[in-house]
Amino acid sequence: MDDSFTIEALCLFCNAVLTSEEGKEFDSGDLIKCNNCGEMNDYDSVVEVAKEKGVDKVESEIEKELHKTMKNLFK
Ligand SMILES: [Zn+2]
Description:
Structural class: mainly alpha
Low-confidence stretches: none
Number of domains: 1
Bound molecules: zinc ion
Distance between the termini: 31 Å
Helix content: 40-55%
């Protein structure tokens, strides 16, 4: 898979990339502490935002491909 499709979990308060301690996994309902600003991020909200960003990325990629296809069709 393309590297540009990596979805990062970002702090809802300062937009820093959230990192977990080695080997630690988060689950629904957990709070993730931001290492940058110290705020607690609600896991479900972080996932929701990350998902939306991922969808945006995929949609713009599809649009690009579609433009290429359309150009070829009407040549
Ligand atoms: Zn933060």
